[in-house]
Amino acid sequence: MSDGKKTIVVKLGTSVLTGGSFTLDKAHMVELVRQCAQLKKKGHKIILVSSGAVAAGKEHLHLSCDLSNVNNKQMLAAVGQSHLIHTWQTLFNLYGMHVGQMLLTRADLDDRERYLNARDTLKALIKHDIVPIINENDAVATQEIKVGDNDNLSALAAILAKADKLLLLTDQPGLFTADPRANPDAKLINLVDKIDANLKALAGGSGTHLGTGGMATKLQAADIACRAGVEVIIAAGHKNNVIVDAALGKDVGTRFVATASVTESRKQWLMAGPPASGELILDDGAVRAMKHSGSSLLAKGLSDVLGEFERGAMVKLCDQNGAQIARGICRYSSSDLAQIKGQHSEQINQLLGYDYGAVVIHRDDLVLFGGLT
Length: 373
Fold this sequence. Notes:
Layout: E1 7-12, H1 14-18, H2 26-41, E2 45-50, H3 53-61, H4 70-93, E3 98-104, H5 106-110, H6 112-127, E4 130-136, H7 150-160, E5 165-170, E6 191-192, H8 197-200, H9 215-227, E7 231-236, H10 242-247, E8 254-256, H11 262-271, E9 278-282, H12 284-293, E10 302-306, E11 314-318, E12 324-329, H13 334-340, H14 348-352, E13 366-368
Parallel strand pairs: 1-2, 1-5, 2-4, 3-4, 5-7, 6-8, 9-11
Antiparallel strand pairs: 7-8, 9-10, 11-12, 12-13
C-alpha cells in the first residue's frame, strides 16, 4: 500500500496457540490479539489464518481419541471450530474489534467463481474494519479438496487479499542451516532471496502432535506467496512483540524476499491461464481507453457478447474487426452481459437486480497483447 499502511496475513500454528499442550493458551492468545490491535491502530489491515480447531475440540470434549483417524479429527474440528472462533471473538472484543470467520477448502480457491466470491467476502470484511479469521473447513473437507495445511492456506489467503506481508508464526525462531534440536551449531538464516532445492533439504516434517505443518510446508507456502509478490517471514510465535516487529520490518526470524510484484505475477497468470470461454467485442472508445489509459472494461464499452460462460470465466477481448487485444477474468456471466452491454455502470443494479461492481473486467484482471500494459 503506497501510504505505508500494509495488509498483513498472520498465520498462527497450533503449536503457537497451545504452547505444545492439548489446550488453547488463552493468555498468549490475548498477547497476540494485543499486537494485532496495535497494528490496526496504526492503520494496517490484519488477517488471521488460525489453526487450533482440533485442539479446541479436544479441550472442550475432554476426549481421548486416535488423531490419526480422519473421522476423529473432523469430529474434533467440527466441535472445536465454534469454540475457537468464540475465543477469538471474545479476545478481540477486549480491544473493541470485530472478527468474521471464513472457512475455506481447496475447491473454494480452485473454482474461479468461488474464488471471486471468497475474495469479495474478504474485501468486504476488511473494508468494514472486521478482522477476517480464516481456517480450512476440516469438518467437511475430503483429501481431494483439502489445501492440506494452514501454511499453504495462508499463502493462498495472502494472494486472495493482495497482502504485502505473510507472517508464518511457529515454535521455531525461523529457518536454520540445520535442525537446531539436533545440531547445536545450527545458525538462523536471516534472509532468503531464492528458495531452491538446497534450502528445501534443510526442512523436516511435521513437528507437533496436533499440527499438520512443519518447516517443509512453510517453505512451500513461502515459495507460493513470494512468487505472487508477497514478502514472507517465518518467526517464533512466542517471541516478544513478534507480530508488530515483523510487520514493521524489524530483523525477526527468516525473511523471504518477494520475487515478483503482485501485478506482474497476476499478468503472467492471466497470459498463461485457462482457455477463453467466450469473446467480448468492444467499441472503439473502450479499446482506446484500455490501450492508452490502462482503463478497466465498463459495460458501456461492450458492443457484443459471444459464447456462454459464467461469472469468473476467462474471456477474449476483441476490437470491432475481431482482432484480439486482451484477455481477462469477467465479473459477470454472458447472460448478465447480454442485458447490461452498452449501458452505464449506474444502471447495472437496476437491470439485473444485483451487481458485482461497476466494471465488467477490472484492469488488474486483464492482460493486454502486443506489448501493451
